[in-house]
Automatic annotation (TrEMBL):
GO terms for molecular function: ATP binding; ATP hydrolysis activity. This is ABC-type multidrug transport system, ATPase component. Residues 7-233 form the ABC transporter domain. Keywords: ATP-binding, Nucleotide-binding, Transport. InterPro entries: AAA+_ATPase, ABC_transporter-like_ATP-bd, ABC_transporter-like_CS, P-loop_NTPase. Gene3D superfamilies: P-loop containing nucleotide triphosphate hydrolases. SMART domains: AAA. It comes from the Bacteria. Belongs to the ABC transporter superfamily. PROSITE patterns: ABC_TRANSPORTER_1, ABC_TRANSPORTER_2.
Amino acid sequence: MEAMNTLEVKQAQKFYGQFQAVKDIDLTIAKGEIYALLGHNGAGKSTLIKMILGLVKPSAGTIVIEGLNYDAKNKEIKKKVGYLPERMNFYDNLTAWETIGFYAKLKGIMKKRCEEVLEQVGLKEAGHRRVGAFSKGMQQRLGLAQAIIHKPDLLVLDEPTTGLDPIGILELKEMIRNWNKEGTTILFSSHNLNDVEELAQQIGIMNRGEIIAQGSLAELQDRLGLPTKIEIDLAVIPVDLEKILAVKRIETFLVEGRTISIDCPKAKKAQVIAAVMDGVLKVLDLRLAEPGLNSIYQSIMEKPAVL
């Protein structure tokens, strides 16, 4: 029977002596999902990723990938996982072709696949250049090529945009979307909240070895109850604006120039919009801004209770 989830981490712990780096982690990533792992340096992300990759043995708990447990199926699991570390080291004297050919041989992959992956990551024309002459961004692309050469079920990316220029980041995002459309489940860590907000379907936030919040962006917004910001551009600011808004039960607002800013609970958003659009105020434009990941992350880290 095919596994419904690509990754299941249950009550995972990791001790280094008396120090507990990972505390009772429960994490499930459904097949075909893009999951982002966030947290400040030292939060435990790297240790958790190494446990998922089988590079570090958990002190307690279980890790199951595609229905296989590491204790019994280490070799089979590693065929199903691709990994791009934050820093990838290659032999400077080898060309990109020779480097990717080396990884293909290690993983039992035919050479035809080497050409495909070099093209996917934008290195086909640089295939005969020595890796030592590559920029950091080009080396990152080569790292991506070795991670996907065997078409893994689970692709783990640790800070994948490191070293990439803005165009390279856009191209990487497109690659991630394409690999995901082809059925690859993706787990990535990042400090770039904009990238996470754009790509991730599920988000986990770590602090002091624990996942203190996880869910979709919308789910995290709802649990925190962060307000929606409504900005209204008026043709003219009435002298009695405060009185007009008080009648509409809007008591807290800011005025800057001819723009009114109102923070309101998400549940009352429609009510506030209807009130300001009833014709009393001469509205030129109205904009909504839901709380983004930056606001969510800051709010959670200020009061790190488990959500």
